[in-house]
Specification:
Layout (H helix, E strand, L loop, with lengths): L8 E8 L6 H15 L2 E9 L7 H11 L5 E4 L9 H14 L2 E4 L4 E2 L3 H14 L7
Parallel strand pairs: 1-2, 1-3, 3-4
Antiparallel strand pairs: 4-5
Length: about 130
């Protein structure tokens, strides 16, 4: 895999299932996000079914970043990593503790900025009625 300007290697996590955007739309969001940032667009891990936290594919993509194969995981929307606000908040906390960077392409939210991560977890925790302990 070639590393380009900035040296950031990105992996796409997509989900095929009820409530998920079409795979083609998720893949395009990944390509556009990487091109806008000058990142190397790497592989894709696709999960069939429910949100990220409950699947082996999501665990595999987190592991790829933890072992430094990629630097950032790109998802189209937050609903890709969890089925509810509580699940999403829990996943964001786990990602932060594991040192895994996440970019949400649809909004531009990047957890490389700790404030973004804190705001997302706080907002989701409020909506999810305290489902996650930070």
């Amino acid at each position: 895999m070639a590393i380009i300007a900035g040296g950031v290697r990105a992996v796409s996590f997509t989900r095929h299932g009820v409530g998920a955007a079409r795979l083609a739309a998720q893949r395009e969001a990944f390509r556009v996000a990487c091109a806008e940032r000058g990142w190397a667009a790497g592989g894709e891990v696709c999960q069939i079914g429910s949100g990220g936290g409950k699947g082996r594919a999501w665990a595999a993509v987190r592991r790829l970043v933890r072992v430094h194969r990629y630097d950032v995981v790109v998802v189209d929307g937050l609903d890709t990593i969890g089925a509810s606000e509580g699940e999403i908040a829990r996943e964001l906390v786990l990602l932060r503790h594991a040192g895994v960077r996440l970019l949400v392409a649809s909004t531009g939210w990047d957890t490389a900025n700790p404030t973004v991560s804190d705001l997302l977890v706080g907002a989701l925790r409020t909506v999810g009625a305290g489902a996650v302990a930070a």
